[in-house]
Amino acid sequence: MSVLVVIRGNSASGKSTAARTVQQRFAHGACLVVPQDVVRRQMLRKPDAAGAANVELLEHIARFGLTRSLVVIVEGILHAGRYGSMLERLTAAADHALHYCFDLTFEETVTRHIASSRAADFTPEQMARWYHGRQPLSFADETRIDASWGPDMIVDRIHRDILAVR
Predict the structure, then answer these.
(1) What residues are paired with 143 via a beta bridge?
(2) CA-CA distance, 20 to 111, in Å (whole number)?
(3) For residue 25, which of 128, 131, 150, 166 has the smallest C-alpha distance?
(4) Which is one Pfam family of this protein (predicted)?
(5) d(C-alpha 99, C-alpha 141), whole Å
(6) Helix (H, G, I), strand (E, B), or coil: what is residue 138?
(7) What is the pTM of this model?
(8) Which of 4, 165, 154, 126 has the alpha carbon at shortest distance from 71?
């Protein structure tokens, strides 16, 4: 039984950390994390644009995991306009799909970024260009994660939700 987990939100909100921590709660080889940044920036070195190859590659990697009945976590900014159609196709392809969206103010994302190990990777000015606020998906009931959720609460909720549908 395949489970798709989508974790979306602005830069530095905690998506990657949550995805990796959830993955660690499963046996080796049972959970595949597909990070948008790794596919786009490292594997392809492409800008984030509509119709870019990284969108297609993200989908192919995620489908690989779904066909093998893995828990597949797709995480990233995943702008609704550029990634929504692909996420809708993945949602339809999964036996179960769980969607989470970080809904944080720009000030909160900057505060989290400054405290992170990646603080030197990009500046608040760069983050301001990427920030787009919450963009709900029309086809999914996303669990909204706001600033009141701590890291443990986020991971516990996602893990518990996965176990409930498996």
Answers:
(1) 100
(2) 21
(3) 166
(4) AAA_33
(5) 7
(6) coil
(7) 0.93
(8) 4
The CATH number of 3-165 is 3.40.50.300
Residues 6+ positions from 122 with CB-CB distance below 8 Å: 11, 113
**Residues 35, 92: Cα–Cα separation, whole Å:** 20
Give the confidence band of 133 by pLDDT, cuts at 50, 70, 90.
Answer: confident
Please tell me the distance from the alpha carbon of residue 87 to that of residue 100, in angstroms, as a whole number. 12
Tell me the C-alpha distance between 51 and 154, whole Å: 31
Angle of CA points 65, 6, 133, to nearest 5°:
150
Residue of 71, 80, 61 lying closest to 10 (CA atoms): 80
Token output for 63: 């489908």
CA 62/CA 56 separation, integer angstroms: 10
Count of alpha carbons within 13 angstroms of residue 132, beta-carbon side = 14
Q: Which of 84, 81, 63, 85 is nearest to 72 (CA)?
A: 63
pLDDT at 163: 98
